[in-house]
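Onboarding guide, step 5: your first structure request.
Type a short instruction followed by the sequence, for example:

Predict the 3D structure of this protein.
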Amino acid sequence: QVQLVESGGGLVQAGGSLRLSCAASGNIDSINSMGWYRQAPGNQRELVARIPSYGNTVYADSVKGRFTISRDNAKNMVYLQMNSLKPEDTAVYLCNAMTWKHHWGQGTQVTVSS
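The system replies with structure tokens like these:
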């Protein structure tokens, strides 16, 4: 099993920045990729960014050029640097780890005011 704990959400004005962190524990060696998803009220959960153990990162078109995902394997951490935030980025952001199944954190709220 893999446990994920997010931190770093909050309230920020449009144009501002936030950095989300996710700490992974448990069966770390089984993780193939890690990523961030988000879910706004009334919307489906959507992929924001994904970083595999090997290969290229993937970003949603809506965040390309503004968000950067990174991973520190030594610390079992994954980060999401979010710049030039927009009100439409407001959502609960969830850390995800892929083994043979999806593992999820509890989520952290990001609110961007206009």
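Each response can be followed by summary notes, for example: The first strand starts at residue 2 and ends at 7.
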